[in-house]
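Possible race condition, two jobs.
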Amino acid sequence: MNKFIIILILIFPFSLIANENPKDKKIAKYVMENIQKDYVNCYSFYKVAAESFKKAGKDKSLIDNLEKSADAALKYNYDLGEIMGLNSEVMAQMTKDKVNNFVNLANKDFSSLAKKYGLVCKNLVENPEQRTNYWEKKGRKIIK
């Protein structure tokens, strides 16, 4: 719940500024869309990692932590999607498709998947402000 409040605090100022400046409105939308995609990716990564580690007989506490992170990412994905006005059925299908995509990637090369998403997802779940700042900075560079 605390992280959801943080997300709202981070994004709410964008919406206030966005009412005054079209560029800021576009940046706010860009940030929200990308953070939401990050949460879908991280949910998918954590679910696939947890299942892979279960099959490999890894420590239960590690698997539990991965599943807990997956649950948090899924919740924030849906919370942010609601704020953005996305339909829950559309979000469910997007999430299902992404999980299936990650399953295929993991079957081909799990270590590359872990290398690409492991640290990004850990940071997103633990410090969403950092990722929000990343997308804002990137948005300010590309949106004119």
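Job #2 (started ~2 s after job #1):
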Amino acid sequence: MQRALPLFVLLLALPLTTHAFDGRREGFLFGLGLGPSYQSIEQEWLIDGKPSRHKNSDSAFGMALQFGYGLTDHLVLGWVLDLGSDTNDDETKLLGKAVAKGNTHFEIDGFSATYFFRKRAPSPFIEAVIGTARWDDGGDNVLDGLGLAGSIGYEVRKNWMVKGTVGWGAPSAEAAIGDQAIKAEVTGLVIAFNASYLWY
């Protein structure tokens, strides 16, 4: 539901703009990006106060969706979904449970602000994202926390862009199983490079 709300609001605003998909960044926009990434995940969990740590890093494949509105041809505000990747590690553990290869997932969803230095392509741009980081261990554990990301990119020609992104997140959770108090904290770092297409 939380993911669907920003999209629902933007869809309601769509009929209100006369600038959507007219070849200018001002107005409604939609973007799709794909590319390789590297992620490092450090997990720390406490069971009755006894700490245990696990760290893994690997290359992965990432995808991101972006829904936005250009206030001008320079400034675009929006929402980024699934700025993350699935890992290729052999196994990982959270709360002591082994997880099969390829099932873990780390992502950052949130509000984005993108600034293009030129009104028309080609143009360099910078982007910042603040929102929620989510870690799914492939089992029964999904953790949420603060997520941040920053990007530097270049619109090579109209609609076509390349960019590099660094994302950080700190999902955490607390639970109790019987008399055992359990606390889990995950720190995730994602470095991604992708090619994207921005409809406007």
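The beta strands are 27-47, 50-70, 75-87, 92-94, 97-99, 105-116, 123-136, 142-157, 160-177, 180-199.
Logs attached separately.
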